[in-house]
Structures are given as structure tokens and as C-alpha cells.
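Technical appendix A lists one of the benchmark inputs used to test multi-chain prediction within the project. The record comprises two sequence entries:
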Amino acid sequence: MNNVYIIGAGIHPFGRTEGRSGRDQGVFAVRQAMEDAGIAWEDVGCAYGGSAAAGSADIMVNELGLTGLPFINVSNGCATGGSALASARFAVAAGEYDVALAVGFDKHPRGAFNADPKSYGLPEWYGETGMMLTTQFFALKIQRYMQLHGISRETLGKVAEKAFRNGEKTDHAWRRSQIDLETIMNAPMVNDPLTKYMFCSPAEGGVALILASEKKVKELGISDAVKISSIAVRTRPPGSFEVFSPSVDVEGGGKPTILASKAAFEMAGIGPEDVDVAQLQDTESGAEIMHMAENGFCKDGEQEQWFAEGRTELNGSLPVNTDGGCLACGEPIGASGLRQVYENTVQLRGRGGERQVPNDPKVAYSHVYGAPGLSGVAILER
Amino acid sequence: MSETLAPIAENLWTQETEPTLLGGQLPDGKIIFPYPEGDAAENVTPYALSRKGTLWSWTRQDFKPKEPYTGPEVFEPYLIGYVELPGETIVETRIVGASLDDLKLGMSMEFVVTPFNDTQSTYAFRPEESS
């Protein structure tokens, strides 16, 4: 397969934008990405995109232009952005197109997501009795993990504190002011042990990435293109503990993140020790902690020490969630995974401004996780 | 009390003096919960799950869930968790007869049918009474 590069990245600020639809936020991001790449809509050979709750992406041609390009709608829940990116990459890698677009956007109502049991193949009583909430799953997973691996409540607080500290420095973030550890720890509990500042909120936003072949990169004379070394999307293996599980296998099992991470590292021909900056799914504080280990960056339980030493801060040995992650940006489902790749592109090009990691990053890693148990990992190299 | 309330769903637990959750056994011996509906039930043998197990994880629901939740109008935080039924499966459940501070990993739990709202009952586990 041919090498594929990101040559343009655009983002509509995350958070709440009254009066602008989710799709229009996507269009905003596409225009910014094209400007960044120095190309016109006529240059885009094919497009993949979607949202979870803000409609189809292909209607964007009304605003962007009726060039006749194939525009594939992606509807893959939390993996919508990641699947759009993977598909756009395949199209270019296969040599079918020289320029492809991946776009994700969303606009969710306020408050926690509520899921329909039927659409997940689950009985009605599971929703009626109040056990089908994503927030509970994350609390249940980290509660057990803390007991088994000695993670303290204070470390959960430190994850959120870091997120808001980074968010303050990020122009596309939603939460842009610092919140001190004490306030985070003493905030109202959502699902023990997680307080309200330890959870991300459903939000709005849009992200677009322009992908190009090596030939096109040379033709355009682009010097700061970022290579996509690997992308791996994996669904859950037997026995894994996932969101919306009325029962879990006593035998235990693998995890979709472990599978996706291993596959992505293998494809890229590198290991966790080679990564300079990482964006890890932080639906809540505990997720970032557990995903550090599931993605192979540390062993279970070592996170306690990592946070005590500030190793995942912007100036640490492995900066994690440099734009404040989901905690500071909120979670527009269709756009969230692409935001991580956008942020890695920014970091690798050295355009992070106040939040730029100082270690001259060459390898960047992103990981998205969502219902009903799937993970997507993308590794970028400069 | 619970006797006058209708179970929140049919065939979720058995109707006996000592009821148990109704799971299913797959042809390869693996045990699942709940017993599946529709075509997914093909080749699945009904399996009465154990009434006793150990606490696997827990949390408290501190805000009122949106639809399709049908709990009492006046919201009271409630405990939920997973209980491991040894050699069978790990079931998600309400937890009653305990407060958050009482809960410890691996503690012994037992099955109970409990009031859910004004008209319905649901299943739960509670810390096992030490005899």
C-alpha cells in the first residue's frame, strides 16, 4: 500500500455554538482544512464522514460544491470519525484517489447520553431499571481497577486538573479555565468514585482532515505533511468488560483497546517507547488512567507514580491529552476521535503555541474508545 | 411487599420460594445472563443462576437517569454493581441493604427481589447476612 499523509487539518471549536448546526460546524472544519492544505474543493477526490446525532455528512456538498465526488456517509457510533479516517486512508493507499477528506461532526443535547436498549439488542428492563448508563460503566470499571491496582481518588482528580490546565491553553477547547484539585475532588458525585469534573460532557464540534498521496504532497510542494503510519480499528473480543453488559464472562478476556494498540504498533513497526505525544480516550478520569496501560505505555498500577511525577504533563516524558482531551473539549461523538488526530497533527507540525510539547515530537499516538466495545488507534509520524 | 408488585419483566427470575435469576447455558457450556430473546435463544438452555456470589465492582447512581428509566418520581440515589456467581457469570445488579461505605471487593452477596417503583419489583443483591 502507498504511503498516506495528512496535508490539511481543520477544526470548529468544541463546546456549544447556538445557531450553527452540527453539519455546518463540519463544513467550517472542511473549509479550514482545505485552506490549511492549500487546495480547493475541486481537488478532493472522495470523502468519508458522519455524525452520531447531527445527520448525514454527504449533504455538505450543498455548501462545498457539486463536484460529483463520491461522499460516503459513515455511521459507526463512537468510531465514526476513526472509521471515516481509516476509509479515506484506504482510498488513497489503494491508489484510487490522490486526495481524500475525512470529516466528523456532532451536536448533542445537554446532559448524559441516554441509550435505547432495543438499538443495542438489549431487553427493555435493562434501561427501565436504570442500569444502562455509560457513566456507570466507566465508574464500575475504574472502581474495580482502583481496588486491584492501588489507584487513589486523588489521582483521578489529577487527571481532570491536567485536562483543564491544558484546555486553558487550547483555542478549540470548551472548558478553558483551570479548576483546582480540591474543587474537582469536592464536586458533586456523578457515579462514585467520579465527580462531575471527572466526566466529559456531550458537546458540539467538527473536525476535518485532508489526506493525500506522496505524489500529491510532492506536487503541492508541502513540507510539513504528517505521515499516517498506521490505523487499527478493533471491536471487542470474547470476555471483555464493555459498556452496556448485563453480564460479564467469568473467564475474563481481552480488550478491544489492547487489540487495536498492538495491531497499530505492529503495522507502524514501532513500540510504545517510541511515542512522543499521545491522545487517549478520556471519557472520564479513570478512562485515561486505564487506557495508559491498555495501550501499552505503562503497567497496571504504575499510573499512580506517573501522575505523582507529572510524566504526562506537557513537559513530561509522555505528554497525554495535550489539548485537554474529552474532559476539556467535551464529546461530540462523530468528531471526537478526529480531534485527537487533529491535535497530534498540530503537535507534530510544532504549531501548538502555548500547549506545544517541547520534546520536538516525531511520533504521535491517538486512541478512541466507545460503545459497544470498540477502539481505534492511529499513529502519525513526521 | 414485593409479592404484590409485578416483576419488571417476565422470566427474568424464577417464581419460587427462593427465586433465582434466569440465565442461559450455551452449547459450549458458557453461562450468560439474561436468557436471550428471539432467535438468539436458539440452542440456549435455561439455567437457574446461583443465589450467592461475591462483589466484583460497584457504584452509586447519583442523578436521575433519562428515559427509558421508570423508577420512582422522587429520585433517590441507588447502588448498582456486578456480582460474580462462581463458575457461572458476573451479573449486573442493583445493590440493596447497604451503603456505599459498606461495599468491599469480594464481599459475599445474596440474591433478593426488591421493590422498584409503586407497581413493579426488580432483582438485586445484598450483603449476605452472616449467620
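The first strand of chain A starts at residue 4 and ends at 15. The radius of gyration of chain A is 20 Å. Comparable benchmark entries are summarised in Table A2.
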